[in-house]
Every structure is written in C-alpha cells, then in structure tokens.
User: What shape does this take?
Amino acid sequence: MVRLQETIEVPRPIEDAFFYTSNFANIAQWDPGVAESSRISQGPIDIDTEFRVLVKFGPRSIPMTYIIRVYEPPHRVVLEGKSDSIYALDDIRFTAAVNGGARITYTADISFLGLIGYAEPFMRRMLAGVGKNAIRGLQAALSADPPPPSQSLWTYLQDRLILPGMLGFTNLGYYWHHRSWKPQALSLRGKTAIVTGATSGLGQAAARQLAELGGRVVLIGRNPAKAAAVQQEIVSATGNPDVAVEIADLSLLAEVRQLAQRLLAREPRIDILINNAGVLLNERSVTAEGIETTLATNLLAPFLLTNLLLPRLKQSAPSRIIDVSSGGMYTSGIVVDDLQYQQSDFNGGMAYARTKRGLVILTELWAERLKDSGVVAHAMHPGWADTPGVESSLPLFHKLTKRLLRTPEEGADTITWLAASREAGKVSGYFWLDREPHITHVLPGTQESAEDRQRLWAALSQLADWREAGG
Ligand SMILES: NC(=O)c1ccc[n+]([C@@H]2O[C@H](COP(=O)([O-])OP(=O)(O)OC[C@H]3O[C@@H](n4cnc5c(N)ncnc54)[C@H](OP(=O)(O)O)[C@@H]3O)[C@@H](O)[C@H]2O)c1
Assistant: This one.
C-alpha cells in the first residue's frame, strides 16, 4: 500500500470546501490525473453515493467506482475506490481556519492488485507526484479570486470571421473552449435563482445545474403538469429538495405581473433571474392582449419581469440578471418603429432575431442603469443546442446539423457559469458564449444609435404599461 498525505489551506469557507470536494463528479475539474468523472447514483450526496472516475494511467485509462463510506458534513468524507487493478481509500478531513477559510487534510491509501502489485514499490515516486498535482488542483479550484474574464485571441478572430464564428456555435466550439476552463468550486447554497422556460431544453438543463450547486431554484413554466414533472426530475437527479414551481404564460403581460407579485410575496431573496423562455414562430400570431407573440415572449416579458423584480434583486445584492439571447441576433439590428412586425411580410427568423437583439440592448441598458447597485446584467447565447424548441421550430436545420448540435447541458453551461462564478459577478453588460465575452455586431447595418436604445426602452415601457418608480 502507498500512503499519500497532503494538507492545504484554502480561502473558501469550510462548507464550500467540503461540498465541492466530496462530490467526486467534480474531481476531473481539479485532478489532472482524472480524465472523466460523473455521479452514478441519484439523490442527495450521502453515504453510498457512487461515482464513476476514469483515472489516467500511462496511455490507458482505468475506470474506477468510488463510493462514499463516511459522510460527516462539513468535517469528513471517506471514499472507497475500486477497479480490477486498484483499490483506494481517500479520507478527507476539513477544519475551519482562522481567516474564514478551511484546512483540508487529504490522505489517500492506494493498493495495486494482481500482477501490477509487484510494481508498487517502483511507483511510489510517480504516485507522490500525481498526488501533489491533484492537491494543487484542488487548492486552485477552492482558491483566491480569479482574474476578470477576458477574450482569447482565437475568440477575437473567430468573432470577426463568419464561418469560424459559426463553427464556434456547434459542439466543436464547446469542446474547444471547455478544455481551457480552469477548475472552480461553484456553490449557490443560500441563493435563490428564478429560471423562466424551465420546462424544456436549456432552461431545464440550467435549472438542474443550478440545483446541483445547492441553490433554491424556482422553475417558471406555463404548463403545470410539465412543470411538476421537471420539478420531480430535478429533485431526484440532484437530491436538492428546494425546487419550486410557479406557473405563468409569459406572453401575457397580465400573467407576468401576477407572477412578479407572487414571487415578491413568496421569495424573501432573489439572487439570480434567468430570462430564458423564448419562441421562434414561423407564422405571425398575436396574443389575447394584442401583441405579436415573439415580441411578447422574448422581449416584453423579460423587460417587465426584470423591472418588477428589480427591488428584490437590489435587496439581495450582489445579484445577477441573465438574459438568454441567441447568435441569431447577429443577423439583425433593432427595428424600434416596427416592434410588432406589421410593416413588412412576417419572417419568423427575423422576428426572433430582432427580439434577441433587443434583449442584448436591454442587458446593456440594465448594466448602465444598475451600475453601483450590486446587480449585474449578462446576456449570453448558448450556441446551437439540440432542444425540443429547435427541433420543432427549425426542423430542417435540426435534421441537417443534428450531429453538430450541443447537448442542452453544454448549451446551458454558460448560463450556470454566469449565475455562479465569481468572475461573472465582477462585470456587467457583456454578451457571452462559452464563458467568454463576444462582440455584439458582426454585420454592417445592425448597429443601433444611442437614441434607438432610449426609444426601445420607451416603447417597451409603453407597451408593457410600466413606469419607473418616481418616473
Ligand atoms: N437551442 C438553441 O440552439 C438555442 C440557440 C439560441 C438561443 N436559444 C434560446 O434559448 C432559450 C431556450 O430555448 P430552447 O432551445 O431550450 O427551447 P425550448 O426547448 O422550446 O424551451 C423553451 C422554453 O420556454 C418556454 N416558453 C415558451 N413560451 C412561453 C410562454 N409564453 N410562457 C411561458 N413559458 C414559455 C417553454 O415552455 P413549454 O415547455 O411549455 O413549451 C420552454 O420551457 C430560448 O430563449 C431560445 O431562444 C436557444
């Protein structure tokens, strides 16, 4: 048997250190000796929770199963790892440090089984190096403030060249970028996130990821049965019982208002608002309130809901608004004089692009207006992800690009990162894809003037019959 033991200190509180480290689904983020890691068992992390960990071993990878044997939050976790050729017992102890951080003592007893066992004495030094790298990775994931986000040279070029830019929207773009992401222990314990459009695709994936990080998540859906099924799915997948549902048809301003009232009455804090619900409609339709449906759902609803929830976001500061736009917005500027698309033949893709452009402008306006309030605003686009929405609205595109589409989880990754990462709490008003800020105009003629932006705000205020307090 080889025993490896290391002690580190990290600035994060003991609870963060414990929950991040004991969830071995995270280990591939911080241990360079691990190729992949995932949770096998559902439900809350506890004794008997199982993880699958693919350990790099020379040119091979060895699949191991780790099971939690002792679970004493936030002080100790013991995991037993097994494969045909390796047995490991990881005993990890946590104590609170004086500076509000945590001290972690990590002891790993590793035995090699069968013939490979004879090589154990020769592997001691190699294992000591592997252990040191792992513990350094854990320390980095739980450590000091990362630098403010910046754009890589590749992303800068990609944004300016149409074809590489579009390749970046595919799963290839995701794979390319995610290799360079630094490990970071994300936690949303004690925070409340509101997610619109949580009953399908990206919203559902984001809600699941947020629940996995320990936050309270309020799912906004329009279909009660579907919302209840998603709530159940997320609770049983993550083991986080704090997942609530609110029902509203967001294309109707009256329902947005009632929703905001209920949220203000029921949620003592709102730390994160994710405006994700959206539609791409191939035929023009008008809501019962007389507003073109794409505009009502994609732009007016986020405008009104965010403004109505702002007092609570401010009280809960530091807090975040996250607007899910689309790469489709690159194809259009805002058309303030025809928000309802009445002056030319309706084109569903263009109507969608205009509203998503509007949402990016709104995000920038919120970022300006909320400067120094502790509330940051982010717009993002998920790339192209395989969701029920894409399949039904763009069946041909879906068929042709299916193999290049991201999973909903990959598309939702940046939503979750914007909600939880420390970097994203420090900046405001950017447009993100794959955890990097991107330019908002590529094609000529899409740039709006400062006056257009103010007119957009005024037109939405009028359509939503919303007036700022004191305004
Ligand atoms: N998937 C992509 O490649 C992609 C790319 C760029 C941007 N986006 C954006 O990402 C967001 C999520 O899209 P998705 O692909 O996940 O689509 P999706 O699978 O169709 O999900 C859309 C969600 O919005 C909800 N929704 C739509 N209209 C609503 C209304 N009137 N009231 C309340 N909820 C409503 C839907 O509810 P139901 O479940 O009841 O239908 C669903 O939960 C959208 O804003 C979309 O524009 C997606």
Q: What stands out?
A: Residues 293-315 form the longest helix (23 residues). The pocket of NAP is lined by residues 197, 199-203, 221-223, 226, 249-251, 276-279, 297, 324, 326, 381-382, 384-385, 387-390, 411 (CB under 6 Å). The longest strand covers residues 60-72.
